[in-house]
Amino acid sequence: MPALVLLGAQWGDEGKGKATDLLGGSVDYVVRYQGGNNAGHTVVVGDQKYALHLLPSGILSPGCTPVIGNGVVVDPSVLLSELSGLNERGVDTSKLLISGNAHIITPYNVTVDKVTERFLGKRKIGTTGRGIGPTYSDKINRVGIRVQDLYDESILTQKVEAALDIKNQVLTKLYNRRAIAVGQVVEELLGYAAQIEQYVADTVLVLNQALDEDKVVLFEGGQGTLLDIDHGTYPFVTSSNPTAGGACTGAGVGPTKISRVIGILKAYTTRVGAGPFPTELFDEDGEALRRIGGERGVTTGRDRRCGWFDAVIARYATRVNGLTDFFLTKLDVLTGWEQIPVCVAYEIDGKRVEELPYSQSDFHHAKPVYENLPGWSEDITKAKSFSDLPKNAQSYVKALEEMSGAPISAIGVGPGRDETIEINSFI
Ligand code: IMP
Fold first, then answer.
1. Dist. CA 214 → ligand 1 center (Å)
2. Domain contains 96
3. Cα–Cα distance between 72 and 132 in angstroms, integer?
4. Atom of ligand 1 lying closest to residue 274 CA
5. Which residues have CB under 8 Å from 72's CB, separation 6+?
6. 22 pLDDT exceeds 90?
7. Which member of 37, 150, 242, 352 has the greatest number of CB atoms within 10 A?
8. Is it the case that residue 21 has pLDDT exceeding 90?
């Protein structure tokens, strides 16, 4: 029953695409369980670079079945263009499965996302503007449109009518925008139905049967732990549960089936969008991390905010996800610093605090308490085993492991598929 969850341990963009792809060859199913095309995975295969937003990264491994679970929100136009982009590059996408219970990001959800952000002004969340939050709102409000609704025109029309009833009032009366016509939305959505039909399946049944047959299933989280709607830095979060429990609800698999939970942890920290970030750097070190690490959003093209590694956050991720392992990524980016500061605790109102405060006000005031670790200058991108790393890089990894509370089982030392040191096998 090898069911693995692979998720971001920080604010997303930890390099999950590389990790999932690395495992892709030995897993039978790669499942996305939450989020939508707000995610951005960069996967490098040979000299080819793929940027995936919605599709599970397993789509690039020929033996693997990629699955979009019920917890995902799907923008059909993005789905189709991502599929055709891959087909043009010779990638076979015919094995993809999409849950009939996944919710559809409709054009009006995208509109509402954008106008709401504009309306919030300086209180905005800095969303990706892809309609993620409004689609999850509709789901919880029970006025969402599901993939299966595309195959019943009368139901679809009724549901779009219900969803637009209040939204059009808000759009016209509050936001001073034009009303959205039900017929136009229905027509657009029906236009996608036939193109998607071959992929639609009862993915809950498929995945549970696969687990019963001892197939290897990998659940791939989008975003990261600190962007979780329940456990992240609310309200500066996404609208779903990237944390491990989300894999169960977002794919319809019971918690007793999960055998391993792997947290992807960048050797430093980044964040996109608004919200607190205690170790953020505004100096040339931050600029250097951004430049060397290529820290620009795959989905939005926005520059990522950069800072030193934060062990308080890593410990928190271990706890809320029940992490069994870490995959440390982008260690090579830190090559060249004489000293590397690591945040070991916070100072809040003059007091040293070892754990992430539950209070938003406290977290907003948290100042990092740093310990300086010695750096290294040798190129580490060719390292194949832990012992190939310079002594100071080894000590950096060991220190992070000790502070973070779970073993580091793999280390990324470069962007390529083979630029990874495996310490403990994941499967
Ligand atoms: P939304 O997910 O578009 O609603 O955006 C909510 C917050 O999550 C914003 O701060 C986004 O920048 C952030 N976010 C969403 N997806 C990602 C991601 O894949 N990586 C990093 N940040 C993300």
1. 34
2. no
3. 10
4. 10
5. 32, 33, 34, 35, 36, 54, 99, 102, 103, 250
6. no
7. 242
8. no
